[in-house]
Amino acid sequence: MTARFCAAVMAFNLAVAAYAGDAHAAYPEQPIKIVVPFTPGGATDAVARLLANKLSGSLGQSVIVENRPGASTVIGADAVARAQPDGYTLLLSGSTTYTVLPALKASLPYDPMHSYEHIAIVAMAPVVLLAQNGLAATTVQQAATLAKQQSDKGGLMYGTFGPGSAPHLAGEMFAEAVGAKMMPVPYKGSAQLITAMIGGEVALGVDTVSSAAPQVRAGKVRALAVTGEHRVPQLPDVPTFAEAGIPEVSFVGWYALAAPARTPAPVVDTLNRAVEKIMQDPQVRKAVTDLALEPVFLPGQAFQAQIAKELRTFGDVAKRADIKLD
């Protein structure tokens, strides 16, 4: 009797395991939603729609993009963190969500390391140091010298997208690396920043390559250096900060796909494999490059390592520069 009972229990457990495996293997069985915590039209939205289109073909289900902007990406990020962990609600956002805000804000409704299953980083987004055309500095080293000369006069003014933004952090990295005091001036976005530089309101500015490259090519502002390990195709004549002898300025934004924590491993693996294949597609890589981004595929572990590294780096920069977000 005992032997028959044990055999029955084993058979039942095997049946349950087989059923669970079949259920996971069947994923996806319904449409998938990718939440983007920005308004439509930006680079994040464009990357999400590109992924959604390709994932739909790869997985055999429709994949839609839902824009949920607000509170510097917190609304959308929190919505995904609280979503059912079944693989049907995903988050496509940038390093602002995963590392910048968590490093600068005292409290958030989500934890970048523990609220998500990290699928992959799919694109890198370098930033560029800009100078107004009338500035007596045509290289980043000359700008550094000028910034140090202005340190005891209140500091050279440079444009950012506001306290704690990517340009603000990159600007503080530059000031710290060259030993200068600089004064950040906030603008609502790239268009306002470029207008302010053309008008002489600020001497320098930090912007994304995707937004700034057309303005540089049009001769409205000068590009002095870009972040990242290599030059960008949109500004091939502009050196990296490392090439210019200032490797400490290392801020590079990025875009990544995540799912709510506790999403089943087979589902995460399915998404991971699909995204890896998509990011190897030459057409996809060209489309991402055309957005002035660098197409990559950094899977879960590398994604987590990037978060951990940047939380430390940005936290240290913010502390030394006294950057705080309420």
Automatic annotation (TrEMBL):
SUPFAM superfamilies: Periplasmic binding protein-like II
UniProt cross-references to Pfam families, sorted A to Z: TctC
Signal peptide from the UniProt entry: 1-25
Keywords attached to this entry: Signal
CDD domains named in the record: PBP2_Bug_TTT
UniProt record similarity statement: Belongs to the UPF0065 (bug) family.
Protein name (Swiss-Prot/TrEMBL): ABC transporter substrate-binding protein
